[in-house]
Amino acid sequence: MKLGLLFSGGKDSTYAAYLAKKKKHKINCLISIHSENKDSYMFHTPSIKQTKVQSNVMDIPLIIIKTKGIKEIELKDLEKAIKIAKEKYKIQGIVTGAVASVYQAARIQKICDKLELECFNPLWQKDQIELLEELIKAKFNIIITGVAAYPLNEKWLGRKIDTNFIKDVKNLKEKYKINPAGEGGEFESFVINCPLFKRKLKIIDKKITGEKNNWKMDLKVE
Description:
alpha/beta; putative n-type atp pyrophosphatase, domain 2; four-stranded antiparallel beta sheet; 27% strand
């Protein structure tokens, strides 16, 4: 099936594309929403502009739509982007990286129903520790680009998701009830390399902003 991927550049959307391709689907295009609202309910924001570089190394065209990021109103911008994907790239469905957010999954499903598209959520309800372990096994190189929960701080920015990372988030889950894959918005990620990429991305600049337990790292890659 010809699919469009809702793509943030993070671990979940990229891994969802990987699983879709393993099932012999074709990813005809990527769809990235650039939100002005850093606390958007729907969209990933750190380093979102770097999805253009990721699309190049994946050799998949990218649709970019900007939004003010106002809750619920931003869904109209998402619908606009998906409609463009359907008309331009003849997609028959949308694939998402949704894992546990009913808010996101329900709204994307509603848009797909309206546009008569299938909606695939290959990560839905997957155990979060299992998901992290699968990413490592599949040779995904992923770093943390944002944190927004106690006791996470700026020292977590740039950390690679590896076995030590999994060990640490397991402890945080037990002690602070943090979702180990960041499904509560505790952290955000960026894929530097994976089997879908023609080459590994190189970080050429980064900007860190934040305070207390809320930090973001915007990257520039090539």
